[in-house]
Amino acid sequence: MAVHSPPLTADRESTPPHRRIAVIGAGVMGLSIAHALRLRGHGVTVVADRSATDSVSGVAAAIWFPYRSGSSPLLASWLRRSKERFERLAADDACGIDLRAGTVVERDEHADRSWAAAVADPREAPAEALPPGAVAGLRATVPVISMPHYLAWLNRRCEELGVRFDRRTITSVGELEGEADLAVVAAGMRSGDLLDDPTPYPVRGQVVRLPNPGLTEWITDEDNPAGITYVVPRRDDVVCGGTADVGSYAAEPDPATEQAILERATALVPALRGLPVLSRAVGLRPARNTIRLEPVEGHPLPVIACYGHGGAGVTLSWGCAETVCDLVPAQGAA
Ligand SMILES: Cc1cc2nc3c(=O)[nH]c(=O)nc-3n(C[C@H](O)[C@H](O)[C@H](O)COP(=O)(O)OP(=O)(O)OC[C@H]3O[C@@H](n4cnc5c(N)ncnc54)[C@H](O)[C@@H]3O)c2cc1C
Fold first, then answer.
1. Please, are residues 310 and 252 in contact by the beta-carbon 8 Å criterion?
2. Within 10 Å of residue 232's Cβ, how many Cβ atoms?
3. Does domain 19-327 have CATH number 3.30.479.10?
4. Can the peptide bond before residue 242 be classed as cis, meaning omega within 30 degrees of 0?
5. Closest to 25 in 3D by CA, of 261, 183, 243, 256
6. Is 292 in the pocket of ligand 1 (CB under 6 A)?
7. 26, 30, 185 from 321: Cα distances, Å
8. Which residues contact 330 (CB under 8 A, 6 or more apart)?
9. Tens place of pLDDT for every residue, the chain, 334 residues?
10. pLDDT in the model for residue 186
11. Quick check: 71 and 43 in contact, CB under 8 A?
């Protein structure tokens, strides 16, 4: 069901001003950018050494929410544009997106509620729905993106559109000279290595996945003094988190941390108690104080950087992809 994109045409990339563009990165950001560029008629190759499911994107739950996203003057616009796109995609069951109500628990009476400007139905959570220590809570309906389904769909969709995939490691953007007219660096945590930028840093997240006992509502308790806690019911499981270890590169799940996550999650959502663990995972959120989305000078070919989305790469993906497209210079320009 083509609810989201125009019909394919055979030779979009043959007519100027379309370009040959290499997108470094096959995570949610790289794939969204590739999809958007291809729909604008560019010839697109995704160059990556890991598939989306094997990258941080495969660890995200994911809910549409700007958690630890880094700042940008365009943040509100990216949030809104991405949410609108996810809402449209939710009409196609194959995308793995559901619009679900849930609660953001607040433990500070001055909690930042700016995110709620992008949702249609923000409302106060009833006190009885909040855990001890909460001062308030905001309920809203947002897209819940079941990443295993969604990433498979997005990959497939890119292939259908004619995006090419090239599995390899890039050590320098200059390697792409001659192959592409322009490179987009959407390589998550490793983008800084490619662009001599030391500012990205990891915010390690550990999750544990349980069978879904029939839950539909999500809940997040970011400022729980015992540790960030969230429960996100997806199509086939429930993702329980988490951790936000700034600067940690530890790649393996820690059993004691998992036990603590389960205790906090079951305190928040008692229906999870006693469920068997389906799987566990760790991902390094690619954080940066400001999201970097801009042209970058000083390389043998034009480069656009798109990274530093922290805990909100899925949430911002479509909005950022559109901005990348807007930054592609017209043919003949520098
Ligand atoms: C526990 C956890 C929960 C999260 N929950 C949410 C959530 O609910 N909502 C949300 O919006 N976000 C969430 N996030 C954040 C989200 O996962 C990230 O922001 C997002 O996945 C980043 O996507 P990316 O495409 O930039 O990077 P990645 O997914 O890391 O992809 C990077 C890609 O670049 C490639 N690459 C890197 N360097 C090179 C190189 N030199 N050569 C070739 N290829 C290269 C890799 O192979 C990979 O394909 C969560 C993250 C974690 C860890």
1. no
2. 27
3. no
4. yes
5. 183
6. no
7. 13, 8, 12
8. 17
9. 333 433 333 344 444 568 999 999 999 999 999 999 999 999 999 999 999 999 999 999 999 998 887 788 999 999 999 999 999 999 999 999 999 999 999 999 999 999 999 999 999 999 999 999 999 999 999 999 999 999 999 999 999 999 999 999 999 999 999 999 999 999 999 999 999 999 999 999 999 999 999 999 999 999 999 999 999 999 999 999 999 999 999 999 999 999 999 999 999 999 999 999 999 999 999 999 999 999 999 999 999 999 999 999 999 999 999 999 999 987 655 4
10. 98
11. no
Determine whether the shortest distance from the Cβ of 240 to ligand 1 is under 6 A.
no
Q: Does the CB atom of residue 96 touch ligand 1 within 6 A?
A: no
Report which protein residue has its CA nearest ligand 1's atom 51. 60
Task: Locate the domains of the chain by residue range.
Answer: 19-327
Spatial separation of the C-alpha atoms in residues 186 and 239, rounded to whole Å: 25
Any alpha helices (H) in the chain, and if so which ranges? 28-39, 75-89, 147-161, 191-194, 255-268, 313-327
SS3 of 96-157: the string is CEEEEEEEEEECCCCCCCHHHHHCCCCEECCHHHCCCCCCEEEEEEEEEECHHHHHHHHHHH
Q: Are 28 and 154 in contact (CB under 8 A)?
A: yes
Conformation bin of residue 41: beta by default, left when phi > 0, alpha when psi is -120 to 50: left
- How far is it, in rounded angstroms, from Cα 44 to Cα 26? 12
Atom of ligand 1 nearest to the CA of 307: 26
Closest residue CA from atom 16 of ligand 1: 313
Count the neighbouring beta carbons within 10 Å of the beta carbon of residue 239. 28
In a mutational test of the pocket of ligand 1, which residue from 32, 33, 49, 85 has the highest number of ligand atoms less than 8 Å from its CB? 49
From 285, 304, 315, 316, the mutation candidate for ligand 1 (largest count of ligand atoms within 8 A of CB) is: 285
pLDDT of residue 67: 86
Check pocket membership of 200 for ligand 1, CB cut-off 6 A.
no
